[in-house]
Amino acid sequence: MAVKIRMARHGAKKRPYYRVVVADGRMPRDGRYIEQVGRYNPLTNPKTIELDLEKIDEWISKGAQPSNTVAHLIDIVRTGATAPEKKQKVSKKQAAKAASSEE
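That's the Small ribosomal subunit protein bS16 sequence above. Prediction below.
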């Protein structure tokens, strides 16, 4: 059985909220999981990352593989750094409006 540590998406449309779960690799993304080991909310400012590192380390020692995203979140929590913010893209209309207001 391939056990993975990955994120399960919850929340409304365009309002994502993630649970970090330990699940069998054959289960669907939001399907049955073995244990919940954390939460991640990208919509708050700053982003909220709550992980139980003791449980995660225990599962990794048993052979569970974290996904790339979860591995990145674990590194952020271990170093104590804040989650990097994505640059907001400005549409052409907004850029034109900002340029006209500056003049």
